[in-house]
Amino acid sequence: MDPSVVDALRSAEGRALLTDATAHDNDAHGRAAAGDARAIDPLKAASSLRRAHPGANPSLVSAALSQVRMRRRARPRLGDIVDSLLMTDDGSEQATRTVAAELRAVRYLGSGATHVADLGCGIGLDSIAFARMGLTVTAVESDPLTAALAAANVEELGLADRVRVIVGDVTDDTVLATVLASADAVFVDPARRDPASRNEGRSARVTDPESWSPRWSWVVGVAARVPRTAAKVAPGVPHELTPVGGCATWTSVDGDLVEAEFAWPAMDSAGNNSVRRRALIVRKGEPTSLTSTIDLLDQAPPPVGDIGSWLLEPDDAVIRSGLVSDLAALLGGRLLDPRVAYITTDTDPGPSPLAAHFRVELALPLHIGRLRDALRERGVGRVVIKKRAIGQDPDDIRRVLALPPGPHTAVVLITRIGDDPWAFVCDIR
Ligand SMILES: C[S@@+](CC[C@H](N)C(=O)[O-])C[C@H]1O[C@@H](n2cnc3c(N)ncnc32)[C@H](O)[C@@H]1O
To answer: Which residues form the THUMP-like domain (predicted)?
Structure first.
């Protein structure tokens, strides 16, 4: 897309094209959901839009159709804000989930920040969240088209008086010095994708932190210069990169681990900067957090013991932030094996967003024949298999179990205790 298309899409004609393309797209998807296999047809959509707007430039028609396609794809992650956004595929793939950006903005506000420098702002989702929280933002983006999209998005959302978008390379000392002169906080979301190498339509992930843009050592250098710096990183980031004296937050949204954030020092909605690790779990829009003031490498070994009446499967954000022992302590529980993230308790832990819980009906060393007999005796004809620290695939286990039909279902958790595989039959219903 050419940067001039951004203005054209925001003109009266561009807006009319977007409205009609959206209506056509909604109608096609509605018919597809009702069983019409041929309803979604990009060629038909283009010719219908061209017929309705005979004078429109064909490249603008196709840009409007692409925006509508990208908005549909981004909506599950970004929500209804997509209706006000213009984007590129790369920009939307890298954009922060709206809820994660909002919770981050709450932390910046709580830490006393007033003016955030968003260094590498992409299409602007973090800048928008900061501004919506009342913070002033200077957003810098090296790619002119992406910067134009960020500026358009900010303006469309009525935030132009709070967010200034600059085209520039933040690793240029002059650009950085100018931006930092007015900011009292920094946010960096380094690009971790390589648009030149694509895989199934998506740009490939770059795993080496020194190949991110900006590179990780540069981010750490900025953090040393500006108190209240945080960087968004991939949730699988190596724990060794965790900032010493800072805080690492892992966020999950409805069970998906979506990002990690490293902050120097810790930022907190309550202004508390002693937190070293945080699991932030968002379920149906509601956040819950579990924190520790102890660095990952300094934590005490977890309590370990025999199986109790309940088994808990912690959320991935709890596991990645190394807070499984803390959760066990909070619930008066223990781990079955110090290296495996299953917690067991003697009393009902009750429902919690931090961990799924299962009532243990039977514990036995894993032996397929014995497990099959036990399930059959209990009338279990259907199982949901969950596993940790065991190589076998749950579908393979279900296949070899070959359960005969039965009136009940059960959850079977399979794991290793020491060197021995165990099965726990839970929640027979
Ligand atoms: C992961 S994206 C940011 C996404 C953004 N947080 C959002 O939610 O929309 C990173 C962006 O940084 C930009 N970028 C990379 N290196 C940069 C640099 N040296 N200076 C300025 N921008 C840079 C990239 O072009 C990309 O748009």
So the answer is: 357-427
